């Protein structure tokens, strides 16, 4: 299995180009199933999850073309199957996002239940109930969600809890339903807004995306268009934390600071001097060690769970004690045990981690368990003395485009050992 090897101790300096958002491109790729014609998508990140989604769409008969700038054109007019098989869904939970579009556009869908993953159990009953509120008949048989509806009709659904892909799935289905749908307690994440903007460009009639109440007036057809994906706020946040931890100065380019308020506040609390422009964010530590931060993860606009592991890594070498509480996923502290192997001082009490910063950690072999855990181990390797080897690095390729190259251009001593 491929590994990343890091020799720590270099402050990071320079510019890094941020890619399109994984969590926006995945629902947008699924939304291509709703269109009457080809959709072309720009600012597509080169990620394993994007390849998996293309394989999934391709297996259904969607015709896909990728140009040299990685613009993807998807033409769903001649699909041959409305089944999402277990083999693909098991490698990427976001495959569930094809459920709503397939049902709305073709009247039936069979999607393998995604099941849990390293960070938690991650059920999808809200997706199912939301679609049932639009008139779908849904059953779960032999590990598959089987959904059917001649034509979905507008309905009202109040989500039991805030769910990002649940909101996206029901939103996509409602776009082609007959009549008006009102969705309450919706996720307000920027990626939900980006999906809604893409659907609106396709001809959907949607109000309120980015608030907790979304109203969708269903339309009869959605058209092929071009759409550029939002920058990845989690990738940007990860590089900014890398700059802060190493006492360096890093500018993340092609970013949207307005989607990152909670993360930027924590970087300032850590002692970073921030400069924000329309499309860039600079952190400058002026050579200083970061201060510990306290944070609690919660749905947007609060602090994102997808940045928790990176700030845990920052706290391991920061000045002071930082308390981190994870409220979204029940098992998202896997990186903490690995960080202890580098000498981090961490006490875990339920969903809270109390991290006392140490002056210096030392490199060691570590094992990545999930996407953001991998990122946090790489960040820790950047500051640990000596060599750190992060194994099972395939997790990181799901969500970071060429992370070692990007960190390398900032001055990190990092390389990938192929399997
Ligand atoms: C592809 C994508 O966009 N992934 C993001 C999305 O995941 P995803 O959309 O899967 O996460 P959700 O927002 O659905 O999950 C939030 C919480 O709700 C629970 N829940 C969710 C649905 C449901 O039917 N029942 C239920 O109990 C989950 O187990 C979890 O505890 O949002 C997460 C929370 O911001 C991020 O960490 C992921 O990066
Ligand atoms: C948890 C994440 O992704 P996914 O929902 O695709 O597993 C993530 O991006 O951190």
TrEMBL record:
The keyword Transferase applies. InterPro entries: Enolpyruvate_Tfrase_dom, Enolpyruvate_Tfrase_sf, MurA_subfamily, RNA3'P_cycl/enolpyr_Trfase_a/b, UDP_GlcNAc_COvinyl_MurA. This is UDP-N-acetylglucosamine 1-carboxyvinyltransferase. Pathway: Cell wall biogenesis; peptidoglycan biosynthesis. Phosphoenolpyruvate binds at residues 22-23. Belongs to the EPSP synthase family. MurA subfamily. Pfam families: EPSP_synthase. UDP-N-acetyl-alpha-D-glucosamine binds at residues 93, 122-126, 306, 328. It comes from Arenimonas soli. Its main location: cytoplasm. The modification 2-(S-cysteinyl)pyruvic acid O-phosphothioketal is found at residue 117. CDD domains: UdpNAET. Cell wall formation. Adds enolpyruvyl to UDP-N-acetylglucosamine. Keywords: Cell cycle, Cell division, Cell shape, Cell wall biogenesis/degradation, Cytoplasm, Peptidoglycan synthesis, Pyruvate, Transferase. Residues 7-407 form the Enolpyruvate transferase domain. It is found in: Cytoplasm. It catalyses: phosphoenolpyruvate + UDP-N-acetyl-alpha-D-glucosamine = UDP-N-acetyl-3-O-(1-carboxyvinyl)-alpha-D-glucosamine + phosphate. Its EC number is 2.5.1.7. HAMAP family: MurA. The keyword Cell cycle applies. The active site is at 117 (proton donor).
């Amino acid at each position: 299995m491929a590994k990343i090897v890091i020799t720590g101790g270099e402050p990071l300096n320079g510019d890094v180009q941020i890619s399109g958002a994984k969590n926006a491109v995945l629902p947008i790729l699924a939304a291509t199933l709703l269109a009457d014609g080809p959709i072309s998508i720009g600012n597509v990140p080169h990620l394993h999850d994007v390849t998996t989604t293309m394989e999934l769409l391709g297996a259904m008969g969607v015709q896909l073309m990728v140009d040299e700038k990685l613009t993807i054109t998807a033409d769903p007019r001649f699909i041959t199957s409305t089944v999402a098989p277990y083999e693909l869904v098991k490698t990427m939970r976001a495959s569930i996002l094809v459920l709503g579009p397939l049902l709305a556009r073709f009247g039936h869908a069979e999607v393998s239940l995604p099941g849990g993953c390293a960070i938690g159990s991650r059920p999808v009953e809200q997706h199912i109930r939301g679609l049932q509120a639009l008139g779908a008949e849904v059953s779960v048989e032999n590990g598959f969600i089987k959904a059917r509806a001649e034509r979905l009709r507008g309905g009202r659904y109040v989500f039991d809890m805030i769910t990002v892909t649940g909101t996206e799935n029901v939103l996509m289905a409602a776009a082609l339903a007959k009549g008006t749908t009102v969705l309450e307690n919706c996720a307000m994440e920027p990626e939900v807004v980006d999906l809604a903007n893409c659907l609106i460009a396709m001809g959907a009639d949607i109000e309120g995306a980015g608030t907790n109440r979304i109203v969708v007036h269903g339309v009869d057809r959605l058209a092929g268009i071009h759409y550029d994906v939002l920058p990845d706020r989690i990738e940007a946040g990860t590089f900014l934390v890398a700059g802060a931890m190493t006492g360096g100065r890093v500018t993340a380019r092609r970013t949207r600071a307005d989607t990152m308020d909670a993360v930027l506040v924590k970087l300032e609390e850590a002692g970073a001097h921030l400069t924000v422009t329309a499309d860039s964010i600079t952190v400058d530590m002026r050579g200083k060690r970061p201060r510990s931060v306290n944070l609690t993860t919660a749905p947007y606009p609060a602090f994102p769970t997808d940045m928790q592991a990176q700030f845990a890594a920052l706290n391991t070498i920061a000045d002071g004690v930082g308390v981190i509480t994870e409220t979204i996923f029940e098992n998202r502290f896997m990186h903490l045990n690995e960080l202890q192997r580098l000498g981090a001082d961490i006490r875990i009490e339920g969903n809270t981690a109390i991290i006392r910063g140490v002056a210096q950690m030392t490199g060691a072999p570590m094992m990545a368990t999930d996407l953001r855990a991998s990122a946090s181990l790489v960040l820790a390797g950047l500051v640990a003395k000596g060599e750190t080897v992060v194994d099972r690095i395939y997790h990181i390729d799901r969500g970071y485009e060429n992370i070692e190259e990007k960190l390398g251009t900032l001055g990190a001593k990092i390389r990938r050992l192929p399997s």
